């Protein structure tokens, strides 16, 4: 037998350079590095069906859908008959303190009640509930007993209250849900006003989106700076980005109030469906 000890170094148990499996391992590593991401997934036993994401839309069904159901305004008729609120949408109404945001929401609620819809006003700002109810009654122009059947007002004081309200509201299937206000929800959930992550995760995903998913139209009320210097809501830009419609209420100099005539301008800062523009 030929002695090849002069050309091959012995395996000492520590140095793997000359182990018989080393060349094979390097070969397999090279193959893995050359594989595409698709090949690696298939090698791991995955396939198209097992990797299918949740909520993947059926394109054929989307193309056949009647989009007028949510791209045409339905609630809140003006004096000329044009309506300013889309069904099953999230409309953010904001303005300086005392600009009439809650009053505008109450007027919209009254118009929906006249047409047979139901309203939930989540009053986290601790307004006078009797005033809220009577404003809706005055705007509606219908019998108080009927308004009482179609309007619900709830005043949460903490996150535990909100956690109970949300599933109840979803089951009730309200036509309109007013969230008054975003600032109070941020306080309840421990959200930092300027944090986009906090707003999206705790306020939008935790409250607004589930309510909207129930089929309700959602109106959220928020504030700008007291001076009204900015058009958008104070805090995170996600407050406007996550809304379907953003309305900025400017009372001007001749602002209205309880038992006092006046006027205000509503600016459309955002209109995702496009009918308001």
In short:
With 277 residues, this protein is α/β, with parallel strands linked by helices. The protein is built from 12 helices and 9 strands.
Number of strands: 9
End-to-end separation in angstroms reads 94 Å
SSE class: alpha/beta
Shape: elongated
Radius of gyration: 30 Å
Uncertain runs: none
Placed side by side, the strands forming the largest sheet appear as 5-4-6-7-3-8-9
Subunit organisation of the chains: single chain
Tally the helices: what do you get? 12
- How many strands, which pairing sense, and closed or not: the largest β-sheet? 7 strands, mixed
Q: Give the topology string: H per helix, E per strand.
A: HHHHHEEEHEHHEHEHHEHEE
Average residue-wise pLDDT? 88
Jot down its keywords.
alpha/beta; 12 helices; 40% helix
Tell me about this structure:
This protein has helices at residues 22-34, 37-43, 48-51, 59-64, 68-71, 101-114, 129-140, 144-150, 159-172, 182-189, 196-213, 238-241, and strands at residues 75-77, 83-85, 90-95, 119-123, 151-154, 176-180, 217-223, 245-250, 265-271. The protein has 277 residues and is of the alpha/beta class. α9 (159-172) packs parallel to α11 and α10 packs across α11 (196-213). The longest helix has 18 residues, at 196-213. It is elongated and about 95 Å long.
Give me the secondary-structure topology.
Elements: H1 22-34, H2 37-43, H3 48-51, H4 59-64, H5 68-71, E1 75-77, E2 83-85, E3 90-95, H6 101-114, E4 119-123, H7 129-140, H8 144-150, E5 151-154, H9 159-172, E6 176-180, H10 182-189, H11 196-213, E7 217-223, H12 238-241, E8 245-250, E9 265-271
Parallel strand pairs: 3-7, 3-8, 4-5, 4-6, 6-7
Antiparallel strand pairs: 1-2, 8-9
Helix pairs in contact: 6-7, 9-11, 10-11
